[in-house]
Please model this.
Amino acid sequence: MKNLQILRKNAGLTQRKLAEKTQIPKTNIGHYELGITQPSIENLIKLADFFNCSVDYLLGHQINDPTRQKEATMLQRQLCNDILALDEDDCGRVEAYIAGIKAKNKETEKLKKSILNENVDW
Model:
């Protein structure tokens, strides 16, 4: 399974700890990560539920559907959890910081487009 090892390591878990938490034998987890065997549907669901991701994501299946919301990364989920623990004032500061980042990125994109348009005109 393409993303299992990444998810497990990002969560700071060994194969043994993941096995204990999901009740899936450690040897199975090792075999899934190496691509030796594929998990049963039951075990796929257990792992997807544990990591709070889709079965598609675990299997590495990427759907190129622009209307589909992208899968949140472990970092994005952690940031959301951190924000939920903040008080209202701190949330306001985080919101202002994010707005600043978005504005900077927007200006950078405008500058790139401007440079590209200048180069096309020659």
DSSP finds seven helices and no strands in the chain. The CA atoms of residues 56 and 63 lie 9 Å apart.
